[in-house]
Design brief:
The protein has 3 helices and 12 strands. It is of the alpha+beta class and about 220 residues long. The strands form 2 sheets. Strands 1, 3, 6, 9, 10, 11 and 12 form a 7-stranded antiparallel beta sheet that branches. Strands 2, 4, 5, 7 and 8 form a 5-stranded antiparallel beta sheet that branches.
């Protein structure tokens, strides 16, 4: 079959697509190409029926995929809307998230989870500038959740100003092997924000965390 006319049309279409930075062949584009190919075929040597049937099958598949894609987009939008509605029910709940930030107001509770029993746990506290202000050893502790209540004093016994601090927990077992210690933060959900398809929770009117950071929902405030 002579497809010189189709080639010229394809080149024109390709140039136009390149100019418009469009590289996706859509359903209407596929149909236009198929129509152009039928118009340009040689009447004395028409397109092979098998090839034509194959192209029709491709068009049908493209049409079905387009419908499926539209359906999936609608489904995702519906799920996102439903999730956003459900997340608002967390307001007023106490949740626990992974995080090593605490707010000092006279004293501060530093919570962490040990992967196994530890014979020694060391807590290090840092100020907003990342300067180490306090180091304390807690001795042996059991696996699971543990809490260190900081009195707000530095290593020299000086009272530190209220504000946000960070901490690390390092643990070892009886053989001196490191034990994983995960810092935790517990707070009350006081707000929910939806930005750029991402859900954020505000804890205690000050701390912002991702919805996916929640490791436990404990209940009402």
């Amino acid at each position: 079959m002579d497809i010189s006319g189709v080639t010229s049309s394809s080149q024109t279409t390709s140039a136009s697509s390149s100019t418009n930075a469009t590289k996706t062949l859509g359903e209407s584009d596929f149909l236009k190409l198929l129509t152009a190919q039928l118009q340009a075929q040689n009447p004395l040597n028409p397109m092979d029926s098998t090839a034509f049937t194959a192209q029709l099958a491709q068009f049908s598949s493209l049409e079905q995929l387009t419908s499926i894609n539209a359906g999936l987009k609608y489904m995702l939008a519906s799920q996102a809307s439903l999730q956003n509605t459900m997340v608002t029910s967390l307001i007023g709940k106490t949740v626990r998230v992974a995080g090593n930030t605490v707010t000092l107001n006279g004293q501060a509770d530093m919570r962490y989870s040990l992967a196994a029993d530890a014979s020694n746990v060391t807590i290090s506290v840092y100020d907003a500038n990342g300067t180490l202000v306090r180091t304390t050893t807690q001795g042996a502790q059991s696996a699971g959740d543990n809490t260190f209540t900081w009195d707000g004093r530095d290593s020299n016994g000086n009272v530190l100003p209220a504000g946000q601090y960070t901490f690390t927990a390092e643990a070892t077992d009886a053989a001196g092997n490191a034990v994983a210690a995960t810092p935790l933060y517990t707070g009350v959900v006081t707000g929910v924000a939806f930005e750029n398809n991402t859900t954020y929770l505000t804890l205690d009117n000050s701390r912002r965390v991702l919805l996916g950071d929640i490791v436990e929902i404990q209940g009402g405030a």
